[in-house]
């Protein structure tokens, strides 16, 4: 490789690295500002200032603040909410439901999710995009403990995994998003015990 080619490749790599750092900084800034100011208080200008990048840099990747927040949530989802796999259905369900309630109710990523859910209630176009990009992936994660158990032979072969998943996680979402009631260990144990009893 010639010296010029090596230098060009190195500079290209540096630009790529800086670009990725800037992108991550924007996503983190959007998360932080949403938690601090709420959805209405988040602006492209504020995100750019917090991330330390030019506003034009933000618009290079996203058209709206909602686009940024959706991508930030998807990144958080991939990093934080993969269900544990202990090889035992009861243990897996208890662990996942506890972490789901914590994730939704007490993390910055959960705050982003709640804000996006609220925005979807009065923005039909966004709601359709949000369901396609976020909720389908979230539902797939929610189904994973039962799907794993089915593959291990712990569940009846004719079990409707999608419906049973909704029965398990629905009360958690309801308490976190609607009533604000606590989702404690006793509540989760009751959900899991009732589900397992129904299989007998």
TrEMBL record:
InterPro entries: Homeodomain-like_sf (IPR009057), HTH-type_TetR-like_transc_reg (IPR050109), HTH_TetR (IPR001647), Tet_transcr_reg_TetR-rel_C_sf (IPR036271), TetR_C (IPR011075). GO terms for molecular function: DNA-binding transcription factor activity; transcription cis-regulatory region binding. Residues 7-16 have a biased composition (Basic residues). Residues 43-62 bind DNA. Residues 1-21 are annotated as: Disordered. Keywords: DNA-binding, Transcription, Transcription regulation. Residues 20-80 form the HTH tetR-type domain. The keyword DNA-binding applies. This is Transcriptional regulator, TetR family protein. It comes from Actinomadura rubrobrunea. The lineage of its organism: Bacteria, Bacillati, Actinomycetota, Actinomycetes, Streptosporangiales.
